[in-house]
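Reviewers of the previous submission asked for a worked example of the structure-prediction workflow described in the proposal, so we include one complete record here. The input consisted solely of the amino acid sequence. No template or homolog information was supplied to the procedure at any stage.
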Amino acid sequence: MKEIERLKEIERQKELDRLKGLVKDFCEERDWDQFHNPKELAIGLSTEANELLQLFRFQSEEQMREMLGKPDTREQIEDETADIFFFLLRFAQKNGIDLEQALVRKIEKNRKKYPAELARGNNLKYTEYE
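From that input alone, the workflow returned the following structure tokens.
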């Protein structure tokens, strides 16, 4: 069983590496390396996240569900999500960040900050637990 899990992990890492390579090739074909320092990529990531946020600004729960159900607005949402993913992959690729390892490590930290028995069903910050 552990062998199967190990093989699945290898496949996931290959897929992330493939996507990072896709982004890298796209950027290198356009000679964009010169513009992709950590600050500029972080700005791009933030900008794209805010473009996604703008789509949902002032929308009710029902309106947001409708947006996700309509092909044209869903495509806009998917495009902005893809832009965010692009910048995240590019940031990781340019700065040697293993996204899977970083995510697993961060989830472990958050398990300690937000124990399930305290965090379940509420949105309090960990500093607000009694």
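The first helix runs from residue 2 to 29. We consider this example representative of the routine output the project will generate in years two and three.
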